[in-house]
Amino acid sequence: MKINPYQPDQSGMAYSVGTTLDRFIKLKQSDFPFASGELSQLLRDIALAAKIVNRETNRAGLANIGGAFGQTNVQGEEQQKLDVIANIRFMRALSKGGEVCAIVSEEEDAVVDLQNNSGKYVVAIDPLDGSSNIDVNISIGTIFSIYRRKTPIGSPIQQEDIMQPGSEQVAAGYVLYGSSTMLVYTTGFGVNGFTYETSLGEFFLSHPQIQAPTSGTIYSINEGLEKDWQDGIKSYVDQCKENRFAARYIGSLVADFHRNLLKGGIYLYPATKKNPTGKLRLLYEANALAFIAEQAGAKASDGKRRILDIVPESLHQRTPLLIGSAELVDEAMHHIQLAKEQATI
Length: 345
Ligand SMILES: O=P(O)(O)OC[C@H]1O[C@](O)(COP(=O)(O)O)[C@@H](O)[C@@H]1O
Description:
Pathway: Carbohydrate biosynthesis. This protein has helices at 21-28, 38-58, 81-96, 159-162, 231-242, 253-263, 282-295, 326-344; strands at residues 68-72, 78-80, 100-105, 112-113, 121-129, 140-148, 169-177, 181-186, 191-197, 202-207, 218-220, 246-247, 266-269, 280-281, 299-301, 318-319, 321-324. By secondary structure, the protein is α+β, with helices and mostly antiparallel strands. The chain starts with 20 loop residues before the first helix and ends with a helix. Bound molecules: 1,6-di-O-phosphono-beta-D-fructofuranose (FBP). The site of 1,6-di-O-phosphono-beta-D-fructofuranose has 12 residues, from strand 5. Residues 77, 106, 126, 129-132, 222, 251-253, 279 line the site of 1,6-di-O-phosphono-beta-D-fructofuranose.
């Protein structure tokens, strides 16, 4: 991926690598002529919570905050202590500033109505993604989507404020707690990545205007579930092997997505017997990454349609996910279509 430190973005503004996140947010506010600064403050609040969660994940082994919490979440998954800690930290950060009226979280059964009708934004969040990797020191992440509410400010939140298609996102991003900690986000004007400098407690612009390679030679899928795959997925993965693609699967969506975004590749989590509608959640996993992917020139689909076009029907609804370099996603879709046609012959 080429980095042009002074590459002007879509609004013609040029940012140098090393710009602090705070300064970048301030400068980018001009992308929104009538901006009130609330979205900017919300992004800052998310960054602050990410710094705290970063500290907690770094010292999890020492602070006895590894391991299970002893409860299951609405998905029936065993909550890890860090899942709960991250959820609390982001909940606090999102509810303190007054910009947010409602939160959808992987760790909360129902919508968290902040009883703040003057709040303009709805946030959907996966506080800690990659739970199966928390205790074994492998990269994990946070994923967030931000929507402007549909109903008038001052009125109670309604279903229509929550059940918005991904195409309505005003911002989305993820934090990767890896060998270094990064925050990558978009507000619809390109994708920018910031690296956390722990000693200074600051995020600095390190990856301006990320553009995903249109193709690549990496595929990421849990091959242990091959028996459950539909024919189109099987034939596509066979073709990847035929072409000597590298199989890379960390088992943390954020980490797999981030690698493929920078190097070129495709991540696939199709429907399986255990998860006939896919495993990943539309509102707080797939939508955010799909927005970032498209802003970086990549693609995201459920195998039939664009992820961002899906109108949600339930809070924790799952979706199959094919996401990554545009040509690879197109190729996978082609295999799925072909298999469907062959099945009807
Ligand atoms: O273990 P599997 O079935 O391959 O699933 C791994 C996938 O599930 C996830 O862990 C789901 O996310 P959570 O950890 O937030 O539940 C993704 O990060 C990852 O890509």
